[in-house]
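Ticket #4471: structure output looks truncated?

Reporter: J.K.
Steps to reproduce: submitted the chain below (95 residues) through the standard prediction queue, then opened the result file.
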Amino acid sequence: MVIGILTLKLYLGEANSLKEKRRVLKSLLDKLKARFNISVAEVDAQDAWRFSTIGIALVSNDGAYTEHTLTAVINFIEKLGRVEITEVQSEKIYL
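Returned output as attached by the reporter:
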């Protein structure tokens, strides 16, 4: 079993209030969940208007699949263009 963990720090340049930030972030998280079948949540900077940290987790039986999916998540976020990824931390745990 392989657990893939991805932590992304995001910059939301178009958000001018917490309400706008939450709208943009909710849309992004919903799209990620639907497209990649992953667990995702905001894990830090909940009260900052233009910054967010999201945590993503994936469980599979194949390390290559896990790596491919996490890379695809990053590429998907970058292609959307609604947020800017400022930092990426990735980890795989083999059990």
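Triage note (M.O.): checked the attachment and the full token line is present. The chain has two helices and four strands.
Status: closed, working as intended.
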